[in-house]
């Protein structure tokens, strides 16, 4: 076996013992030792000794052991081990200097029993409990912070106001309706006349009881704008008492202003198309209409030719 | 950046708290301290007086056997475990402070500390407590065979058996390691100290001379051997003649020391053989192929590897720098502490 190796060695070009294995082999041969002797004395197998001498380090254990074998071999051959180890290091520079000291772990836990089956239930229960706790805390917080919640309610309740507001005006109507009849009739489109008419009957007996006679001299002076209660019965009865009535109908949107004899502004509005307005006041009434073409004026039951007063689609007329 | 900060503040240590020597490895720096585990204590004002630490380490070792009555040089570790808890704590505190010399704050490191494989729960707890008492924030224990195998750069994590024989001052640890754990280990309370005692006993018996422990250690280092070699060495020794009571010089040979060491060496061989006996055959095959590795100061005893090789018929390798193997192994465990958890021992 050693002869085979030596044949191999002779074929290699480098003759000087720069190779570690060759140095070991030549020294061994100088001492007259056989591979088997060395193997027996080092307690290695002859295969390992041959591998050492052939520099076949892949056949030997890891670097730590190989270095130990080289030291032991050098000791046996009574030569210095350090130069040999230096040669080994230059030979095997890529030898891993440090081997791993702990196992790489996948970290997969071992599941025992039926732990997997109740875990989802546990998670679901936990989520439910959390949700319930969150709801409870929200309610609690809402009670203690009503102000902060209000805007949210307003946003949340537009549908509710549609239905809820309807009864509210019904209750409030008796007061605003008469006022609307005199002052802000723009809010009362269709129901306004009905309401005033319906109101007129019960109001008529009550108002005259309070001020039928004194109303005649006093009301015409101050109340047309101030006291709608007095104005409400007026349409039927008070026209003769110095109060004139103007009906304005608009087929197109138009601006309109009405002033009474005292220079008091009874109306100053932009009216939408298909709307009408009823104004009562002490004549003569000064009327200005912005869009004459879309407006019709009826004064004391008689239609007035506004177009004749129009100038650049604006009519300025005085109704006596 | 964060790593730099944490290393600045923590400065973790690995300590080989040995019976003979204490070695400290600082993370990122290597072994920075190697001192004998000896503490010299001065007692002031009589036997019940106040005790102060006079010296620790090499300086204290020089006082061993030479001190007056008021000074006591103590080796607080015995057989690999703590014999004197308070002194051990003081010694550790001194060493830790020495390593942290230039620090503004008091050191508060994480510490890896070696324990013999055969140490009991009480002994391990004592080591842990003394390290905490010395200022450790957290203490990890590592068994000596494991640390020695890591320090000797054995492939401990591979699925191959590696055998390590760590002969320390107080204990000899034989371990078979595979897959990052100890498959079999045996701790024998035989080590360098037992060698010294054997030499002292032998000389007293055969020469009628009393020698001191440091002298016995010197003899062991100079001419001690474990296997009859071709070369016989001699050494001149001074001791006290027991019959005359006077100091006398005499010469002793390496063959006599070999004879003196037979008993402790036999226990080491016995421990190794018993470990091989208990090793599963598959791992035994790996060990037969690669051999066992000797570490620890005892591995420096001349021809100990030849003795073990002849006795077991297996290749025996002495690790490079065997004295620091355990400390280097603990140091590597310290460097990779965050990555591993299975190499540490429990109480």
UniProtKB/TrEMBL annotation, chain A:
Biased composition (Low complexity): 198-222
Keywords assigned: Membrane, Transmembrane, Transmembrane helix
SUPFAM superfamilies: lambda repressor-like DNA-binding domains
Domain Cytoskeleton protein RodZ-like C-terminal: 247-318
Gene3D superfamilies documented for this protein: lambda repressor-like DNA-binding domains
GO molecular function, one term: DNA binding
TM segment ranges: 118-138
Listed CDD domains: HTH_XRE
Pfam families with a match to the protein in the record: HTH_25, RodZ_C
Keyword Transferase assigned: no
InterPro entries in alphabetical order: Bact_Cytoskel_RodZ, Cro/C1-type_HTH, Lambda_DNA-bd_dom_sf, RodZ-like_C
Coiled-coil residue windows: none
Region called Disordered, residue ranges: 154-222
Protein name listed in UniProt: Cytoskeleton protein RodZ
Record lineage: Bacteria, Pseudomonadati, Pseudomonadota, Betaproteobacteria, Nitrosomonadales
Gene behind the chain: rodZ
TrEMBL record, chain B:
Residue sites binding ATP per the record: 19-21, 169-171, 217-220, 297-300
A GO MF term: ATP binding
One Pfam family this sequence matches: MreB_Mbl
GO biological process, alphabetically ordered: cell morphogenesis; regulation of cell shape
GO cellular component: cytoplasm
Main location: cytoplasm
Keywords recorded for this protein, A-Z: ATP-binding, Cell shape, Cytoplasm, Nucleotide-binding
Subcellular localization: Cytoplasm
NCBIfam families the UniProt entry points to: mreB, PRK13927.1
Record family assignment: Belongs to the FtsA/MreB family.
Subunit structure: Forms polymers.
Function summary: Forms membrane-associated dynamic filaments that are essential for cell shape determination. Acts by regulating cell wall synthesis and cell elongation, and thus cell shape. A feedback loop between cell geometry and MreB localization may maintain elongated cell shape by targeting cell wall growth to regions of negative cell wall curvature.
Protein name (Swiss-Prot/TrEMBL): Cell shape-determining protein MreB
Gene from which the chain derives: mreB
């Amino acid at each position: 076996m050693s002869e085979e190796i030596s044949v191999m060695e002779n074929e290699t070009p480098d003759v000087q013992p720069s190779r570690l294995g060759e140095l070991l082999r030549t020294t061994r041969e100088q001492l007259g030792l056989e591979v088997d002797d060395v193997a027996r004395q080092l307690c290695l197998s002859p295969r390992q000794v041959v591998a050492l001498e052939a520099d076949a380090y892949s056949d030997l254990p890891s670097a730590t052991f190989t270095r130990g074998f080289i030291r032991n071999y050098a000791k046996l051959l009574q030569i210095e081990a350090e130069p040999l180890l230096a040669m080994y290091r230059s030979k095997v520079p890529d030898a891993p200097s440090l081997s791993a000291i702990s196992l790489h772990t996948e970290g997969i836990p071992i599941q025992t029993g039926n732990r997997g089956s109740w875990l989802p239930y546990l998670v679901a229960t936990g989520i439910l409990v959390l949700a319930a706790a969150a709801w409870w805390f929200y309610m609690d917080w809402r009670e203690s912070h009503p102000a902060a919640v209000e805007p949210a309610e307003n946003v949340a309740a537009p549908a509710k106001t549609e239905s809820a507001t309807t009864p509210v005006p019904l209750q409030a109507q008796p007061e605003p309706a008469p006022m609307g009849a005199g002052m802000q009739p723009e809010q009362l489109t269709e129901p306004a006349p009905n309401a005033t008419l319906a109101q007129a009957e019960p109001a008529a007996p009550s108002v005259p009881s309070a001020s039928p006679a004194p109303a005649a001299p006093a009301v015409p002076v101050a109340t047309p704008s101030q006291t709608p209660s007095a104005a409400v019965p007026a349409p039927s009865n008070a026209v003769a008492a110095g109060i004139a009535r103007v009906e304005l109908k608009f087929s197109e949107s138009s601006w309109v202003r009405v002033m009474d004899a005292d220079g008091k502004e009874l109306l100053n509005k932009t009216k939408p198309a298909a709307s009408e307005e009823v104004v009562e006041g002490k004549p003569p009434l000064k009327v200005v209409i912005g869009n004459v073409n879309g407006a019709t004026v009826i004064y004391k039951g008689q239609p007035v030719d506004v177009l004749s007063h129009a100038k650049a689609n604006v009519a300025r007329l005085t109704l006596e | 950046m964060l790593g730099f900060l944490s290393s600045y503040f923590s400065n973790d240590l690995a300590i080989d708290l040995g019976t003979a020597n204490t070695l400290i490895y600082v993370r990122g720096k290597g072994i920075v301290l190697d001192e004998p585990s000896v503490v010299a204590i001065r007692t002031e004002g009589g036997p019940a007086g106040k005790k102060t630490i006079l010296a620790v380490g090499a300086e204290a070792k020089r006082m061993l056997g030479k001190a007056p009555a008021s000074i006591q040089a103590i080796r607080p570790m015995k057989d690999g475990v703590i014999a004197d808890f308070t002194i051990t704590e003081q010694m550790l505190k001194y060493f830790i402070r020495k390593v942290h010399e230039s620090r503004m704050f008091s050191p508060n490191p994480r510490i890896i500390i070696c324990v013999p494989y055969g140490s009991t729960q009480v002994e391990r707890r004592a080591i842990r407590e003394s390290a905490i008492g010395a200022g450790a924030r957290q203490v990890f224990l590592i068994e000596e065979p494991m640390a020695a195998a890591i320090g000797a750069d054995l492939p401990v994590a591979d699925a191959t058996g590696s055998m390590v024989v760590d002969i320390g001052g107080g204990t000899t640890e034989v371990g078979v390691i595979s897959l990052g754990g100890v498959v079999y280990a045996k701790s024998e309370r035989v080590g360098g100290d037992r060698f010294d005692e054997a030499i002292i006993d032998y000389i007293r018996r055969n020469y009628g001379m009393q020698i001191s422990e440091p002298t016995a250690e010197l003899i062991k280092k100079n001419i001690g051997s474990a296997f009859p070699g071709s070369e016989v060495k001699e050494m001149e020794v001074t001791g006290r003649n027991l019959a005359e009571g006077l100091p006398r010089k005499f010469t002793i040979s390496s063959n006599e020391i070999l004879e003196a060491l037979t008993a402790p060496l036999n226990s080491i061989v016995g421990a190794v053989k018993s470990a091989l006996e208990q090793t599963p055959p598959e791992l035994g095959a790996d060990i037969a192929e690669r051999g066992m590795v000797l570490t620890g100061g005892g591995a420096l005893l001349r021809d100990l590897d030849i003795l073990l090789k002849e006795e077991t018929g297996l290749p025996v390798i002495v690790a490079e720098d065997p004295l620091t193997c355990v400390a280097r192994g603990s140091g590597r465990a310290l460097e990779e502490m965050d990555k591993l958890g299975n190499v540490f021992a429990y109480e």
